[in-house]
């Protein structure tokens, strides 16, 4: 539970607009919005542009609400980690109770208005996503098991399903495949980060795989999950959301991603520490491009379908 002692009374109440915006985790929200947008446009049922805009707005607000609730609950461990110590709640710029109130209000607002603007399946999926991220991941898994990011990654994988449901009112194999793509991408993405910020997780006693099983085991897990992800990603090219553009993108990026995972697996800790975890940091940066490029290719395939498909089809 959040420790009120991490909040400095002298600083509380000094929040500016940028602090409230940071509370919503805008970088994470960018990924949420983009994958939801792709899921919505990849759906076979066109959505009214205004309703589509509203749907993406409410999904973004829901993602921001999750971020605010996460920062409220995690303020104690955020204060201990260099990577997160500057966040609004642990620094005291935003009071923990204020972050909680903002998160709860935005959660209710986003779910209700998404349901009203589109359909209640989409609203229900958004509500479940917020619940999963805040309760299942943040409050339970994150502090109790090294599988935290494996299971908890489902929270970040739901947005394309929500976007699809907003347009169609249903769940399909295609939307589940987009969910699986993000779900399988999450562990190697975060484990690469955990390799070069292990000290943070040690200090905060968060049971990341690097803390409970060590960096060597984490490197093995990264290459295994990357191989499984590559098979899924390339295989998706032969489904409803795939096509030549997506398949070419998937083949190239997964070859690069697999090479990066192999490079990480081959390294010893002495080698990694000697060069400042350069290889691990490159893999982490590539992982960001990886997901945006795959979903960008799905978006291109959807646009080609809207224009009548490939000439030879």
Automatic annotation (TrEMBL):
Pathway: Porphyrin-containing compound metabolism; heme O biosynthesis; heme O from protoheme: step 1/1. The chain crosses the membrane at residues 28-44, 50-73, 94-114, 120-141, 148-167, 173-197, 218-238, 244-262, 283-304. Its EC number is 2.5.1.141. It comes from the Bacteria. Keywords: Cell membrane, Heme biosynthesis, Membrane, Transferase, Transmembrane, Transmembrane helix. One of its GO terms (cellular component) is plasma membrane. GO terms for molecular function: protoheme IX farnesyltransferase activity. It holds the Pfam family UbiA. It is found in: Cell membrane. It is a multi-pass membrane protein. InterPro entries: Protohaem_IX_farnesylTrfase, UbiA_prenyltransferase, UbiA_prenylTrfase_CS, UbiA_sf. HAMAP family: CyoE_CtaB. Belongs to the UbiA prenyltransferase family. Protoheme IX farnesyltransferase subfamily. Interacts with CtaA. Converts heme B (protoheme IX) to heme O by substitution of the vinyl group on carbon 2 of heme B porphyrin ring with a hydroxyethyl farnesyl side group. Carbon 2 of the heme B porphyrin ring is defined according to the Fischer nomenclature. This is Protoheme IX farnesyltransferase. It comes from Allosediminivita pacifica.
